[in-house]
Amino acid sequence: MTALVLYLLTGCAASIQILSQIVWFVWGRRISPLEVAALVGAILVTVAACFAISRPRRASALALVGCLPLALYYGIGVVTGLANILHLGSQYGFKPFVPPLLVLITAVHAVRVFRSSSLATAQPQRWIIAAVCLGTVAISPLVGFSRTAPFNFSLPRRVVTVEMSWKRGDAHYGPNFISLQSSCPNSSDARCFCGTDFKIMNSAAFADYIQSSGARPMAVRYEVFYDPNGEAISANLVSIGVWPRSKFHENEGNISSGGAITPGERGLTTHTPQDCFARLSRH
After folding, report:
1. CA-to-CA distance for 49 and 7, rounded, in angstroms?
2. Does residue 159 contact residue 222 with C-beta atoms inside 8 Å?
3. CB–CB of 159/221 below 8 Å?
4. What is the value of pTM for the model shown?
5. Does residue 144 have a pLDDT over 60?
6. Do 237 and 248 meet the contact criterion of CB atoms below 8 Å apart?
7. What angle do CA 30, 35, 37 make, to 5 degrees?
8. Dihedral of alpha carbons 98, 104, 105, 106, sign
């Protein structure tokens, strides 16, 4: 029964985590051959769960074959992730590392079963097997998917603090509306500015907190993802002062670039979020 749960949980969780990256091809993201190989490996581990009770040695062999591309995929990813943490100040929760840990545990368990000279043949009742399978499949999305903590270890990422001026109140959105703004550090056009507005949460406590800073700018922290050339490609809000991301509405906090143009001036071209964060330097 242990093998059934382990293979099924590992295969489903890894499949969901990998698919959560592959699905971005709809928006132009390139799919790596290693991602495809890892997804096939995750499917093989899931299939191995079907034979974990009736043919444990065959199931363990299939699980080991599936773990090979998964181990390579996650090995590269975890090493890159740890390098991001140590050298770039990246922040990861524990959750993204759970599927890689499950792959390691599954591989060790499969080796032990495959090398075992005596295997238990007792089979539990079918309703117990069905209940265990349903429960395992039900919790696998909780293990393998995170909307707020992107898995992609391969992208360089670091936490950047942006000093932003603030404005409170708006005729349309009310007295608790907050607008934060800063200059564009990665744009040659002095008219460019980056900002974010808080229209939905309408929190007097948050607005009072912002106002308590007086004339001082607010320290807004973003976890920024960079492409191989060091250009920012996405940014997730981490905190505003002492207010963590979890206190804000999911649709608020995204930074964007823009600019004020007076009549007769040339047009302004902006790029979000590239304009809002300096290019990444590893040195």
Report:
1. 5
2. yes
3. yes
4. 0.67
5. yes
6. yes
7. 130
8. positive
